[in-house]
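Box 3.1 A note on notation
Throughout this textbook, protein chains are presented in two layers. The first layer is the amino acid sequence; the second is a token string describing backbone geometry. Keep the layers aligned when reading.
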Amino acid sequence: MQKILAGDLAEDGSMALESAGRSQRLSAYEVAAFTIVSMADAMEQWFSWQEDIYSQFPQVQNQRQQGVHWAASLWPGPMRPASRMLSQISDLGRALQHPALRAQLPLPPVFDHCSRQLSPGDEAAAVSLYWSVIQLDQPLVDLDAATAVLESAVRLNPWVGEPQMVLAQLYLSAGRADDAARAATSALQCFSGWGNAWDKRVQWDAWIAWTRILLQSAQQGSWPERLDKLNNLALKG
């Protein structure tokens, strides 16, 4: 992964590796396959717990003692989305645009088919903004502040669905059905592209299900005014 991120590829897309004193060369097809699998694997597994125990990944410092950093070791931790991994996944995707790799396998349908990149700074800022709403670190009565914060998060990182899904619900609560439908539709597209949840607090299919409820409510004008009616939304046909 480090060599791919560093762009250490031959003109023909192959890659030379050294392991235990032995040299081998991966073909362009093998490099492309490994890159795609690494993207999917990181998206499936990575959240704040891994981010702390593998701090500075992929240049992991192996001198940190578990007993000293016990707070970081407590599983599953706060379950916050990772603030460093998604930008690395986007860099792996861009590596697939290498002329010798591009046609080896279908490009993953993320980051505009691996043609766009997410900067580390934008990723970290977007996660912080999103999590501040999830943790209720925004005014709890008026929607304006939380909505503006989530809109900023989505502008910084439009490549994951969860912030857009939460934003869709805030739009519905504010009576902005058209905006809610657009946000929910975009969220579903992101969820479908990844096939995995970015926010690991619930499973991917649960995010999909609630987003579909939001979209249906926006299209039908059926979002309830009473809080206690939210629990019954999934019972509607």
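The chain has two domains: 1-101, 120-232. Residues 28-45 form the longest helix (18 residues).
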